[in-house]
């Protein structure tokens, strides 16, 4: 094998690189959640479920998000392995802690909903990209979707779409339709960021 081929061959991330990537992803996701809740927005997946529970009960997002994700770690371990499960647990724990700490050092004033929706999508999208590229996630429905696809053949994308549709329908009972519409735009931007930039064949693991 030539030196050029050796230099171009992908290698695994080091422990320090994984730690930095997970820390970055968790921190940026926490900023995204703080902006999202500042605007009264909702989102999809388990983060969206935790936010709706938080809005309905007044409980803090961090503890709710941590608790909501607990049932998914076993599936994550069975479907994607121990390393993925542990990294995801670390990421979810960091996010749950950071959303309680960040307001002490970061506050938002006036943010137009259009700007907020796009910024939330970009912030959260970049956070998830960092976590995905370092073998972690923020837990949740995606794991269940993959599990159901393996067991039943029902496409994972459809499972996630049905879950998110149900979340946004429930959101209409807690938020006005304009806020839900802006929230949908933010979720769309987030998904576009992931769809365009998340390519396993282009990056080291």
Question: What do these coordinates show?
Answer:
Helix 2 runs antiparallel to helix 7 and helix 3 packs parallel to helix 9. This protein has ten helices and no strands. The chain has one domain. The protein is mostly helical and 205 residues long.
Shape label: globular
Taking pLDDT < 50 over at least 5 consecutive residues as the criterion, the unreliable ranges are 1-7
State the domain count: 1
The amount of beta strand, in percent, is: under 5%
Helix count from the secondary structure assignment: 10
Describe the largest sheet.
none
Please give the number of β-strands. Answer: 0
Rounded to an integer in angstroms, the radius of gyration calculated over CA atoms is 17 Å
Tell me roughly what share of residues is in helical segments.
Answer: over 70%
Order of helices and strands: HHHHHHHHHH
State the separation between the terminal residues, measured CA to CA: 21 Å
Mean pLDDT: 83
* Category from helices, strands and their pairing: mainly alpha
Subcellular location: Cell membrane
Transmembrane segments: 21-41, 47-68, 80-102, 114-132, 153-174, 180-197
Keywords: Cell membrane, Membrane, Transmembrane, Transmembrane helix
Organism: Paracoccus lutimaris
